[in-house]
Design goal:
Rossmann fold, 3-stranded antiparallel β-sheet
């Protein structure tokens, strides 16, 4: 971006042409008295500036441009971001192997083909896909991961090393740590991770498709109250639909059996309300995508983008050029271009 610091100085560029016109057309020239002008009839008066005059006029014009301080600005943007701390608590119980099937699939053979083609994934894989997209969209936030079934396991503390975090996410499998569902345990574990955080906002997102079937010293409501005490906001996501199937291996081979959604919507709403969070329902893959988009919009990161401009100044170079031209004009006028009246 080229600009002048003092553009009004460029008005002085009108002076060199005026001075040149004065020197060529209006200035009285030296003369002598002669008895007759007949010998000079064929001589034409010179109507162009001399070389010294050109040097001085151009030098003056360059000097005026230098006084206007031409400069090239390179705009820079400084990004200062203040992220939030988020812990994602993901249900890994055996029920997360269920498939929430779109209404467009109406038969077992269609479902089998869709599952084999990867078009329909189990609940945990659907959640992992959208959590991965959520993490990649928030590079400035420290994000942690908890996996839970009957008990909670802290898989990754809140970190900015999202590649490492995603590697842990990829390893999650349904039923690998049990089949029961304990909701209080991941809440208490997440609060314990976040309570000493210095982030301006601390958030725990709980994903589950089941009811609280594990006994714990704390109830889920008590864990939520503890979260509120430490200013941790809990968002809850109930996973599952009424068109859900489970792959069962029997004597006749593998078959899909319909199951009922089992998550406790009333409890999940209550846990979110206690801490000022929100409850969401993800019925299938599209629903999970919408839920994660809403949470992403709800939990915005503060980013400041102050701008500054680095200027490259051309005035010193132009001033040297102008000085050289003026000096050349002076030397030429007093040496080889000198004229006597």
């Amino acid at each position: 971006m080229m600009e002048f610091a003092y553009p009004w100085v460029l008005l002085l560029l009108l002076l060199p042409p005026l001075i040149g016109c004065y020197l060529v057309y209006w200035r009285k020239r030296p003369s002598i008295v002669v008895s007759t002008a007949v010998p000079f009839r064929g001589v034409r008066a010179r109507r162009r500036p001399t070389f010294p005059q050109l040097c001085m006029l151009i030098g003056a014009a360059v000097l005026i441009v230098a006084l206007a301080r031409p400069r090239y600005g390179d705009e820079k943007v400084m990004i200062r971001s203040q992220g939030i701390d988020i812990i994602l608590a993901v249900d890994m119980s055996g029920s997360m192997q269920a498939f929430d099937v779109p209404q467009s699939i109406t038969s077992g053979s269609q479902l089998a083909r869709a599952v084999n083609a990867g078009e329909v994934k189990n609940r945990l894989e659907v959640a992992k896909d959208e959590i991965r997209r959520f993490i990649e969209a928030r590079p400035n936030d420290r994000i942690g991961l908890i996996g839970f079934a009957q008990l909670a396991y802290s898989l990754a503390p809140p970190t900015l090393d999202h590649a490492w975090l995603l590697a842990h996410l990829d390893r999650l499998e349904p039923g690998m740590i049990g089949d029961a569902t304990g909701i209080a345990s991941p809440l208490a574990s997440g609060v314990n991770r976040l309570k000493k955080s210095d982030a301006p906002r601390r958030v725990l997102v709980l994903f589950t498709d089941g009811r609280n079937t594990a006994e714990n010293r704390l109830t889920p409501e008590q864990a939520a109250a503890l979260a509120k005490e430490f200013d941790v906001v809990i968002h809850t996501v109930g996973i599952g639909s009424r068109n859900a199937f489970f792959l069962v291996n029997g004597f006749g081979g593998a078959r899909f059996e319909r199951i009922q959604d089992e998550f406790d919507e009333k409890l999940l709403r209550s846990l979110a309300e206690i801490t000022g969070g929100s409850y969401f329902h993800a019925a299938d893959a599209d629903g999970m995508k919408q839920v994660m988009d809403q949470i992403n919009q709800l939990e915005k990161t503060t980013i400041e983008q102050p701008k500054y401009i680095e200027f490259r100044e051309y005035a010193p170079r132009l001033a040297l050029v102008a000085l050289g031209l003026l000096l050349l004009g002076f030397i030429a006028d007093t040496t080889w271009c000198m004229r006597l009246p």
